[in-house]
């Protein structure tokens, strides 16, 4: 028998085996690989199995591998269905063999690292393997005949088998993900070790990044309850930031929100935000959870009754976090939460006014290290736009040199060309025009805007599609703002601008501007 040192085993794994596996993709026949992968290399329980497992990094890495394999299988099943419609029998068979191979690999890989998998899971594994074999046999028969009558009768049978394979596969993946979520949550629930708990929370966060379906599974298995339990224990204070980050991810789904309400999550978040002994990182991640659960894009925030009870102290803490933010990221999270709250409840705007938030936000915008992206400016101008419905807001804007800021925001452009950043720039332009339109009912604000040459810039945004990145929402907002300022200063417009952009109905000016060529500018 051979004995290997750790370093020589490492070399074998990285060099020879790695190259063999890469070559295998190009050289090996699918059928051969299918047969090979359905058989274990060794049945011995001893050293060899330990060596095999030593190459596995962690539960999280293994789950990502499993999800990658599952995605491949799912894609292949869709493609088989498409080829079947076109009667491409040879392709259908080769793809079926490949799916068979992937399914067996996935099951073997999973069983190599999982612990205490259920009897139900093993049943589904066997059902899926048997159905895949049956599927391969059927498609092979179809490649051996050209009799259209036989092929037609086989087609419905294959379709039925394909549906069953997809169904078993979906149920197995659901069981696997549920089982792994349960394992991680059990570790979080039972462990007193900071290291083990941190590792489990990080794995759980990594799973939440795989999409809404996994977030639903985690919420259903009690993820929100377990994580809030951590946030109520002082011994785990150092884990609060990653725990809250994981909670924010889970709360993107309705199940997560319901769980949060059940465990009195909002009073807990309010306590964290108002406790000055917590780190800025903890406060920022708590702000991220607030931003998530108050998002105006969610349709299931109505049940957050406890939020209104805690709103004043949450808003106060978030304003304080904005004021003392040490980085752009912290400011972004705190201001995003505030922006969402101003949509969530109108009382928030009055609280912000009392807290002198307008001045704090306007001052922050002059610090390019803090308000350093269009995303941050989008949050600030959202708050300004929502606050501008209050009459007292105008004097605050004047005192804080806010009209100058709104004018600068009308020039917001993306430096990277990244689509998300371009969309943020459009929102900044639109909301700054909306805020100007609302505030210009006050003669003092309108006068300041006119002196800062807002009218020529609004005309340019209306007439030049590239200046507004062809955005219709920016165009409408600019037309409204322009009309409001034109009332205060009719002499500030040339006759052609007045005739085309102010005098007609809004819809007619809109249609005129959307059909304009650049040569009109």
UniProtKB/TrEMBL annotation:
Molecular function terms from GO: cytoskeletal anchor activity
GO terms (BP aspect): apical protein localization; asymmetric cell division; establishment of mitotic spindle orientation; regulation of asymmetric cell division
Domain (Protein inscuteable homologue C-terminal): residue spans on this chain: 69-521
CDD domains named among the record's database cross-references: INSC_LBD
InterPro entries: ARM-like, ARM-type_fold, Armadillo, Insc_C, INSC_LBD, INSC_LBD_sf, Inscuteable
Gene Ontology cellular-component annotations: apical cortex
Protein inscuteable homologue LGN-binding domain mapped to chain residues: 12-56
Origin superkingdom: Eukaryota
Protein's recorded name: Protein inscuteable
């Amino acid at each position: 028998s051979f004995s290997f040192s750790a370093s020589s085993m490492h070399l074998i794994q990285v060099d020879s085996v790695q190259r063999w596996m890469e070559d295998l993709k190009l050289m090996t026949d699918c059928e051969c690989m299918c047969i090979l992968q359905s058989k274990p290399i060794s049945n011995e329980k001893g050293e060899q199995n330990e060596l095999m497992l030593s190459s596995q990094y962690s539960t999280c890495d293994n789950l990502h591998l499993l999800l990658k394999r599952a995605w491949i299988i799912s894609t292949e099943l869709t493609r088989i269905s498409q080829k079947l419609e076109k009667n491409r029998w040879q392709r259908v068979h080769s793809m079926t063999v490949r799916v068979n191979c992937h399914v067996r690999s996935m099951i073997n890989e999973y069983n190599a690292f999982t612990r205490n998998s259920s009897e139900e899971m093993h049943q589904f594994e066997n059902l899926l393997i048997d159905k895949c074999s049956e599927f391969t046999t059927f498609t092979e028969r179809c490649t051996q005949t050209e009799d259209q009558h036989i092929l037609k009768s086989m087609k419905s049978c294959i379709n039925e088998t394909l549906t069953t394979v997809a169904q078993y596969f979906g149920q197995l993946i659901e069981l696997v993900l549920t089982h792994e979520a349960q394992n991680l949550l059990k570790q979080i629930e039972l462990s007193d070790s900071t290291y083990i708990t941190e590792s489990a929370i990080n794995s759980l966060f990594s799973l939440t990044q795989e999409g809404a379906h996994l977030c639903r599974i985690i919420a259903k298995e009690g993820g929100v309850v377990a994580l809030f339990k951590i946030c109520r224990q002082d011994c785990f204070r150092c884990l609060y930031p990653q725990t809250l980050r994981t909670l924010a991810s889970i709360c993107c789904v309705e199940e997560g929100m319901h769980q949060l309400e059940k465990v009195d999550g909002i009073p807990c978040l309010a306590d964290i935000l108002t406790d000055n002994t917590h780190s800025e990182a903890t406060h920022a991640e708590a702000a991220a959870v607030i931003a998530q659960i108050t998002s105006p894009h969610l349709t299931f925030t109505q049940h957050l009754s406890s939020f209104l009870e805690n709103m004043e102290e949450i808003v106060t803490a978030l304003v304080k976090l904005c004021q003392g933010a040490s980085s752009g990221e912290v400011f972004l999270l705190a201001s995003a939460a505030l922006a969402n709250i101003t949509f969530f409840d109108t009382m928030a705007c009055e609280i912000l006014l009392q807290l002198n938030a307008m001045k704090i936000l306007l001052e922050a915008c002059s610090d390019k290290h803090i308000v350093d992206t269009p995303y941050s400016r989008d949050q600030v101008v959202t708050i300004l736009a929502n606050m501008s419905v209050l009459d007292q807001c105008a004097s605050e804007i004047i005192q804080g040199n806010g009209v100058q800021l709104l004018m600068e925001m009308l020039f917001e452009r993306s430096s990277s060309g990244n689509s998300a950043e371009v969309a943020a720039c459009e929102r900044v332009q639109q909301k700054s025009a909306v805020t100007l339109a609302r505030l210009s009912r006050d003669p003092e604000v309108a006068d300041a805007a006119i002196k800062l040459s807002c009218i020529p810039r609004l005309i340019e945004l209306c007439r030049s599609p590239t200046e507004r990145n062809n955005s219709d929402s920016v165009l409408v907002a600019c037309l409204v703002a322009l009309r409001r300022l034109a009332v205060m200063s009719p002499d500030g417009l040339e006759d052609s601008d007045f005739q085309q952009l102010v005098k007609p109905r809004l819809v007619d000016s809109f249609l005129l501007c959307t059909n304009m060529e650049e040569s009109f500018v």
